[in-house]
Design goal:
With 313 residues, the chain is of the alpha/beta class. The chain has helices at residues 19-33, 50-60, 75-85, 105-112, 130-147, 163-166, 179-185, 211-228, 232-261, 268-299; strands spanning 4-12, 37-43, 64-69, 88-95, 118-122, 159-162, 190-194, 308-312.
Length: 313
Amino acid sequence: MEEIDISIIIAAYNEQDNILPLYRELKIVLERITKNFEIIFVDDGSRDNTFNILKKLHEEDNRIKVIRFNRNSGQTAGWRAGFKYFNGKVAITMDADLQNDPKDIPLLLNELNNGYDVVSGWRWNRKDKFSKKVYSKIANLIRRTLVNEKIHDAGCSLKAYRRGTVKDLNLFGEMHRYITTILLLRGFKIGEVKVNHRGRIMGKTKYGTMRLFKGFLDLLYLKFWAGYSTRPLHFFGGFGFLQYFLALIILIEQIIKAIMLNIFTVGPLLVLVVLLVITGSLSIMFGFISEILTRIYFKAYEEDNLNIREMLF
């Protein structure tokens, strides 16, 4: 298909009241920038009238494209589908709930032209509940500590990506929170601009209180994958040999103690030695298994499992 200038990617789940206002705002902003754009809505298994509204928009404006999932699969799957099928030189992601302001799109594009591969929005005056703000601050602090990511608001959905950064990006689970983290670890240059953030007027938030803990686990996975995806044996083997070393130290201490006191008893420390040897051996074996699985992963063809029901392109 012909490459276009800008692709807007929006994952929507039960947002029937927000689709039309968002489309009207986007159309005004985008037509001031270029006539050569597309808006890809990913209907994430909505149970309300979202898809029917999107279908009618597609019939009225061929720049509106719709991907419909069989079931609710989450924002990560939605953006993964959008990244797979967009045709723009630049992809811009945003939420469907009207909290992201389309008028900020030119700001992202201008910053992108300053030599960045990705530009993230920074909701510096965020209109959300106090609990969500706290969760985000904690998540950003953990992110900066583990991967040294400098941007203030990595959780902001409003972002601009050059085509080459995300076109072949494989996202699973709930990794949409860490797209900039993944790209940073791959060596891309990440920028940031302050953007407007609006309070939700219609519809309900889809966030749960467990997202902070899930996000922390995902970040640990990314940290491990970035450092050891091609050499997991070094990680698990190193952990195994550390346990061997601790077992040896304890065993030597017990032998010296037995010689000096002329008493030899099987106590908790000797049981710990046996346990460390067993768990150390298991770690090394798990490292070998991980090496095999990693090689299979990098060689195997990755099957598309997006559960797409239909596409209106």
